[in-house]
Amino acid sequence: MTASDRSFPADFLWGSATAGHQVEGGNFNSDCWALEHASPSIFAEPSGDAVDQWNRFDDDMAILAAIGLKAYRFGIEWARIEPVEGVFARSALDHYQRCIDACHQRGITPVVTFHHFTIPLWLARKGGMTSDQFPALFARYCETVTRALRGLVVVCSMNEMNVPLIIRDVALGLLAGEEGAAKRAAAEAVLGAPIESNFLFTPPDALLRNGLGAHAAGRDAIKSVRPEVQVGITLSLQDEQAEPGAEAVRDARVAKMVDPFLDLVAGDDFIGVQTYTRTTSRKDGTHGPRAGEPVTAMGYEDRPDALAAVCRYVWHRTRTPIIVTENGFSGDDDDRRAAFIGESLGALQCAIADGVDVRGYFYWSLLDNYEWMAGYGPKFGIVGVDRATQQRRIKRSALAYGAIARAGGLDVGSTAPTPMPLASGTPIGVT
Ligand code: FCB
Prior knowledge:
The protein has a single domain (3-415), classed as Glycosidases (TIM Barrel, Alpha-Beta Barrel), CATH 3.20.20. The strands form three sheets. The chain has an eight-stranded parallel beta barrel, surrounded by five helices. Strands 6-8-9 form a three-stranded mixed beta sheet. It is built from 16 helices and 13 strands. Strand 12 (383-386) and strand 13 (391-394) form a beta hairpin. It is of the alpha/beta class. The structure holds beta-D-fucopyranose. Residues 19, 22, 159-160, 163, 236, 274, 326, 364, 371-372, 380 line the site of beta-D-fucopyranose (FCB). The site of beta-D-fucopyranose has 12 residues, from loops.
């Protein structure tokens, strides 16, 4: 590839992402809101007003457009739209219609996530995804929303369907010991259901049956109303590496947590790739960052090259178009965030030049927002928020990313990052 190569397609979606519960505030009827207010809670702090995007959506789109971005991935909240089983709130649908309109008015492509970790409390009481009713209930919600909303373009049916498997040890760790048992009891009391009804604690068999079943039913419901809408699911994918001798450990992880999901959604309109880091499997069966390597505020190894490696793997295995629906850096060092974005996109540009079909990149996150159980600690945003005043502050990383987006790519020249080996050791040579 030469210095002048600009291999991102002309209609590439240069965007940034958020999720409803993490930015809107006041998601009162959801299971996560209830869990945040359990005492003791598995959440560090409640989401509260979050960053009040419920009231500031249009202002945030003005910021996104000023940065130079052309697409916004955001979530709609099932708990607001169907606060009581079978009762759909016209006011919530109207609100989300205004959000979609605000995007289009500014030339921003809306990418809408229908399910991003949270569900209505009434559905948690039925067991959430462990209930065999889940796929049909999700399909009804998808159909209602798709009939109601004009201007949908790209829809992510569900966010990170495989993440409960990826974080299973961490999630079970939260419930371990005396303190964990107290948190579980408090959580189950507020939910009125076992903790497994919350998406992040969904057992593996329920994910494969009802989770992927819901995606298929939801996708078909959306397509039956608006066949032109591009529908896909997003997956949590890390660059899976192995220390010498631990290849079998790594391959077993990939065979359990990645491949079955990829195989079941290959052939969708797109696959949403969400990659933050690489992880290295060890001979003792554990995995994580390599010793001595820099890590981000979330404890992830700081590896911008992970994204391109994962995209190569996904394309090689599925031949399904990719949208990078999340990739990001957590921490207070915004210069490092800017560099991380540039390095991630540089490696991605090489992958695209090699034939990997990537159609968009959404930096996580547009705003410093509510990071689930970690509360407001880790900062991912290219736009900072003073939560006392809800004032936004555009960071330098936003300007750096905006410059790349406006130029339609990077001048990589001789400093082009070397593509990483494929995640499960498959040789490179993707076209
Ligand atoms: C992903 C989630 C997203 C955000 C980032 C940091 O797993 O989809 O909501 O929390 O991690």
